[in-house]
Amino acid sequence: MNPFVRTLVQAALILTASLVVAAVGNQVVERKLQLNRDYFPARHKGQPAETTPAGGEPKASNPDGTAANPAAGSPTENDPAGQPDAGTDPDAVAGTPENPAAGEKPSRAVPGPGGVLMINGIQVVELEDLTSYVELGEELCVLLDARKKDLYVQGHLPGAYYLDYYQHPDLFDTARDAVDTADFVVVYCNGGDCEDSLSLAHDLIYEYNVPEYKVWVYEGGYDEWTEHGHDVVKGEERR
Amino acid sequence: MTDGSKPEGSGGPWTLIARAAVGGMFIYLAFKKIGGLPDFHKVMKTYDILPLDPPWILNGTAMYLPFLELVLGVLIIVGLFTRTSFLMVLGMLIFFTIAVYLRGTEIQQAAGLAFSEVKFDCGCGTGEVFLWKKLIENGLLIVASIIGVFSSQRVLSIDGLRSRDNEA
Q: What does the pLDDT look like over B61-113, one tens digit per residue?
């Protein structure tokens, strides 16, 4: 057989065998991927139209890079802070302040209607407000940890439910009752560039029909929480 | 079907070293990725090479690549379809190395870092690594793969056994 043809045939066999191994392997691994699931749904939600200047680039929250005013009061059913995506640029992303304050990570949140900070249509809660909400108790504020199990066990916010974003279809039932009864549902991940909390928040609204006004993302995430010296819980127990 | 090489061929011990290094590294990194497919999937997204719509393109690639690496690593270690496996590995390494370099320089420019300071999760399975270390590591693997492609030595390999059988 011609060596070139032989190589092509062998390559085809290798690729096919790998496909079979992958098909079997993906059924066996603990943290699976689903072929047709959109794991980055929040990108379809642009920023609120009124916060996007004509040039298409969202404004920074504040000139010195700090986030704009915290959420003005509690959201209510009659005053949802979520925004429809009709008319917004689906490729628009939250602006990054040009001059972030020293030591602070630039925030992607921009002010939405009513002064509520938002990222891609999801309300953002800041650290100061979050610590207040957490003190209200689980009946009023439930925390969802969107990170993988290893990170959750190493440490999580007190009372947070483990809800790995990539596995949430299998895990959501453990938190469903709490999510349904709480006034605030706050989702967090590591913070920074991690988008799992944003994606999970999006799925809570559009897959599990959690009212948009109840869902918040804690942008700073676990990293910011621990950097500010707040308590964490280690292990699989929530508290 | 044989590899067309005699067992003793050319390449000396370097071929065995290349098989052990490349095959072993690919198997090791494949298992690291398979143990954390979502993490690999997220890192792949950061490269902006594959479209996010439709989702099956990025998802399917993340679900397939680690297992392809595993199969290639095993084939190289046992010495079956050795030259073809090395050729495929070489192609993958060249592509990945260019992608890692471009991604690293993008991070360097965005963060204003010196080249030696650039550190990020390249998706190779080892977590965050310094860009310069990863480029050196990949460079060595590329050299080893080239040795494997051009070597005709098939000691301790299934290809070698099949060659002997065909001659007999």
A: 999 999 999 999 999 999 999 999 999 999 999 999 999 999 999 999 999 99
- According to DSSP, residue A70 is labeled P
Q: Both tokens of residue A104?
A: 């602070």
Q: Is A209 exposed, middle or buried (0-12, 13-18, 19+ CB in 10 A)?
A: exposed
A36 to B41: CB separation less than 8 angstroms, yes or no? no
Amino acid code (one letter) for A143? L
In 3D space, the residue among A202, A229, A231 whose CA is nearest the CA of residue A215 turns out to be A202
Each residue's pLDDT tens digit, A152-184: 999 999 999 999 999 999 999 999 999 999 999
Q: Does A26 touch chain B (CB under 8 A)?
A: yes
- Please check whether residue B110 touches A, CB under 8 A: no
- The answer to ipTM > 0.85 is yes
Helices (H) and strands (E) in chain A, counts: 7, 7
3-state secondary structure of A43: helix
Residue closest to A144 by CA, chosen among A83, A205, A215: A215
Residue pair A145/A160 in contact (Cβ under 8 Å)? The answer is yes
